[in-house]
Design a protein that fits this description.
The structure holds two protein chains of two kinds. By secondary structure, chain A is an all-alpha fold. Chain A has a single domain (3-214), classed as MetI-like (MetI-like fold, Orthogonal Bundle), CATH 1.10.3720. Chain A has helices at 3-46, 49-64, 67-77, 87-113, 116-124, 129-159, 171-182, 185-214. Chain A is flat and about 75 Å long. The model of chain A has no long low-confidence stretch (mean pLDDT 95). Chain B is of the alpha/beta class. Helix content of chain B is 37%, strand content 24%. Chain B has helices at 47-54, 79-83, 101-112, 117-130, 146-159, 176-191, 203-209, 227-232, 237-250; strands at residues 7-18, 21-32, 36-40, 62-67, 70-71, 86-89, 164-168, 196-199, 212-217, 220-225. The chains are: A mainly alpha, B alpha/beta. Bound molecules: adenosine-5'-diphosphate and magnesium ion. Residues 47-48, 168-169 of chain B line the site of magnesium ion.
Chain lengths: 220, 257
């Protein structure tokens, strides 16, 4: 077996397939996780007692338990009550639910750092609560939450490898299969690592650009 | 009840307590169309609370408020219907930090009044011109001086075509050299016949612009009357002392600045 054949057909092609699955995972989990995070944070800060404590309880549960346990419950646990997910669906749901909890903490902190006068001025103009949150509070809070949420997004790229534990052959899983079949752990995982690094770099670059672009002139 | 058509704002028997502390203990006054009422009083007497009770940003424990004969308190209408007709200018501006000066002025027109974006932009530009800031339209609050910020916030209130504007110490957060331009803008509004309620310590300004000064102490109106009467012939010694004190503290004439 030529070295070139190994690299192309046995290493790169399957890893590429794995990478595509990983991209699918994160491309869905990142935006949906963010949206969940926003909803949880808004519910926590502006909801009534019931909604606020439900959001708080949610966050405590999902930050307080290992993601792997959450994934096991989704994939192996729920079928016992008649709910079946494909590995991909289970992983995506798990990542959304978990990253939403983390995002919400960053966003909640950012909302609470906005001075009360902003809401008051919005309401004095005749805006409803919802309008004030949408047009005044969130645009400012989300900007402030970008650094924290960026961290979470980058973590998500890396912990997406846990999807392998619910039998999804994503990037890490693909690597594991090749490595153990051909016993080339170092080479294979070096490539896998580089691919993750590339993805993280691209996303980091994008997030930094976004932060720059959204920067409010004059604010330090 | 027979109501005077000229009365824009009527505040009746407003009570408010925070926890066990009674802040407002029955404040009533009426503001006629085109009038400027100045409210003065020691800090912590509830002047800001009173202004917030008028547009229900703070819900009073008791008392009623009418705007042009329509009751604002206990209304079936959405409170937002009233709030857009009651302008408010805050001590620390409360401009929306993520929006340009123009954005601050037009957002209420677009989101609250549902005005077409181009129309809103035109109107917002006009309001900025009115306070002398058309050249700063595309700057963000963080790029403006305190005086400019406060003028933008006046333009923001004006844009909604309010029936009355409430000012809560509009110059108290400003460096002395910036106070004049803000008072100037407010004075122009008075001249144009805007109905206003103003909490301020600027006595020179109050003297030249106010139709009536209301002195609030311990949650009640102690005395009210024309600037001439309060300065020259007040009913209570307490009023005289307070006026003397703030005149010394804040200076007599805003025009001198
Ligand atoms: N939201 C609030 N919660 C509790 N106490 C308040 C609140 N707002 C104002 N107060 C209290 O009410 C009193 C009057 O405040 P304020 O209306 O700001 O007075 P002023 O504007 O005359 O200085 C102060 O003692 C203040 O601490
Ligand atoms: Mg005050």
């Amino acid at each position: 077996m030529s070295e070139f054949y190994f690299i192309r057909n046995i290493l790169l092609l399957p890893l590429l397939e794995g990478t595509l699955i990983t991209i699918k995972l994160i491309a869905l989990s990142i935006p949906l996780g963010l949206i969940l995070g926003i909803l949880l944070a808004v519910g926590r800060v502006y909801g009534n007692k019931l909604i606020s404590s439900l959001c708080a309880a949610y966050v405590i549960f999902f930050r307080g338990t290992p993601l792997l346990v959450q994934l096991f419950i989704l994939y192996y646990g729920l079928p016992s009550i008649g709910i079946f997910f494909s590995p991909l669906t289970a992983a995506i749901i798990g990542f959304i639910l978990c990253s939403g909890a983390y995002h919400s903490e960053y966003i909640r902190g950012a909302i609470q750092s906005i001075k009360g006068g902003q809401m008051m001025a919005a309401e004095a103009l005749g805006m409803s609560r919802v309008q004030a949150i949408l047009y005044i509070i969130l645009p400012q809070a989300l900007r402030r939450a970008i650094p924290g949420c960026s961290n979470e997004i980058i973590y998500l790229v890396k912990y997406s490898s846990l999807a392998f534990m619910v039998t999804l052959i994503e990037l890490t899983g693909a690597g594991k299969i090749i490595a153990s079949r051909y016993f080339k752990y170092t080479e294979v995982f070096l490539v896998v690592g580089i691919i993750y690094l590339l993805m993280v770099s691209v996303i980091t670059k994008f997030l930094n650009m976004l932060e720059k672009k959204l920067e409010i002139p004059g604010l330090e | 009840m027979q109501r005077d058509k000229d009365i824009v704002l009527e505040v009746e028997d407003i009570h408010k307590k925070y926890r066990e502390e009674k802040i407002l203990k029955g404040v009533s006054f009426k503001v006629k169309k085109g009038e400027t009422k100045v409210i003065i009083g020691p800090s912590g007497t509830g002047k800001s609370t009173l202004l917030r009770c008028i547009n229900q940003l703070t819900i009073p424990d008791r008392g009623r408020v009418w705007l042009e004969g329509e009751e604002v308190t206990h209304t079936k209408k959405s409170i937002n219907q009233f709030r857009q007709k009651i302008g408010m200018v805050f001590q620390d501006f409360n401009l929306f930090d993520h929006l340009t000066a123009l954005g601050n002025v037009e957002i209420g027109l677009i989101k609250v009044k549902g005005m077409d974006k181009n129309k809103a932009r035109q109107k917002a530009m006009e309001e900025l011109r009115q306070v002398g800031l058309e050249n700063q339209a595309y700057l963000y609050p963080a790029q403006l001086s305190g005086g400019q910020k406060q003028r933008v916030s006046i333009a923001r209130a004006l844009a909604m075509d309010p029936k009355v504007i409430l000012f809560d110490e509009p110059t108290s957060a400003l460096d002395p050299e910036l106070i004049g331009e803000v008072l100037e803008a407010i004075k122009n509004l008075a001249i144009q016949g805007m109905t206003m309620v103003l909490v301020t310590h600027e006595m020179g300004f109050a003297r030249s612009v106010a139709n009536e000064i209301i002195f609030i102490e311990n949650g009640k109106i102690l005395e009210s009357g024309s600037p001439y009467k309060l300065f020259n012939n007040p009913k209570y010694e307490r009023t005289r002392r307070f006026l003397k004190k703030i005149t010394e503290l804040y200076g007599e004439s805003s025009e001198k600045r």
